[in-house]
Every structure is written in structure tokens, then in C-alpha cells.
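can u do me a favor
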């Protein structure tokens, strides 16, 4: 089931998420809903707080070229356990901050540990777009948005645009 995506500024997007302690069918179903919502948006990642759920859950799939085999990942309690000194800069966007993009510099490679939908521990090293995406989504679980990496003036400008967009959406 497709879910509604919260638009910044929304206080839930700035909150710390609770760890998933007990993996339930409801949480697996939530993960499926999040994947459907992400693909429909369309996006390459989505974190639970973006749909108003304050659990440490993210979904991502950075295989976005035609002909690529989809690789949907569901991560409960993801955490970066190692990151490279080398950095990459990508133009990031966010489904909660539609049509706004900015360059963000992050570690080029990260190793992430998480629990999969069956409750098994997983660990993988990501680089390039995958590394940027997984870090961006984990940031959401910490109440951090990509615009928090920007200079205050740019961040305020984007926030004002989002306030205006929310007003327009409320009227329609």
C-alpha cells in the first residue's frame, strides 16, 4: 500500500528513531509499503520517518537504469560501522524536500550492518551512489536531512520553498 510522504518542515523528520527490537509481520508489511511508495515516487531510498513511522527502518534500490535488475534492500537498525577517508560529492535530493537538490560531500565508501526482513544480521560495503544513498537514509533515522549539510542561507531558502509548497498543497 502506497503511503504519504511527509514534506519538510515536519517535526517528525527531525526526531531520533527507536531501534526495532522485535521483527513483526507488521514491520515486514511496512517495509513492503515503503518500497512501493519509494518506487512510485520515484526515488532510490526512503526512511520510515518520512512516512511518519519512528522506527529504524530504511529501504533503498539504486539500480535505476533501464535494463538493470532491481535490487531492493530492506534494512532494520542500519548502522555505518566503517567509512573511507576518501570522499565523494553527489547532488542529493529527498522525497521529503521535492524538487530541491544540492551537493553534499560524504565518505566515498561505507560498511553498513543491519538486520534483514528475516531477522538475520547482514553486512556490506557500499560505494558510489549506493554509499551516498545509504548514508542519506540513515541520517533520516537520526533526524538529519541533507539540507543540514548546507550553509544556513541555502537551508533557509529551501525551507521557505517547502513551507510555501505545503501551503499550496493544503489549499488544493
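np, heres the sequence
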Amino acid at each position: 500500500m502506497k503511503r504519504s510522504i511527509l514534506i519538510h518542515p515536519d517535526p517528525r523528520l527531525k526526531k531520533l528513531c527507536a531501534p526495532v527490537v522485535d521483527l513483526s509481520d507488521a514491520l515486514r508489511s511496512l517495509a513492503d509499503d515503503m518500497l512501493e511508495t519509494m518506487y512510485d515516487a520515484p526515488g532510490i531510498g526512503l526512511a520510515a520517518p518520512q512516512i511518519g513511522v519512528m522506527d529504524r527502518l530504511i529501504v533503498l534500490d539504486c539500480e535505476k537504469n533501464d535494463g538493470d535488475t532491481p535490487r531492493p534492500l530492506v534494512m532494520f537498525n542500519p548502522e555505518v560501522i566503517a567509512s573511507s577517508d576518501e570522499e565523494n560529492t553527489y547532488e542529493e535530493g529527498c522525497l521529503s524536500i521535492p524538487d530541491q537538490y544540492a551537493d553534499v560531500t560524504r565518505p566515498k565508501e561505507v560498511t553498513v550492518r543491519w538486520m534483514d526482513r528475516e531477522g538475520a544480521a547482514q553486512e556490506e560495503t557500499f560505494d558510489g551512489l549506493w554509499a551516498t544513498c545509504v548514508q542519506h537514509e540513515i541520517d533520516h533515522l537520526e533526524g538529519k536531512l541533507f539540507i543540514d549539510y548546507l550553509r544556513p542561507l541555502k537551508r533557509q531558502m529551501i525551507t521557505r520553498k517547502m513551507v510555501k509548497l505545503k501551503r499550496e498543497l493544503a489549499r488544493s
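The longest helix spans residues 152-171. hope that helps!!
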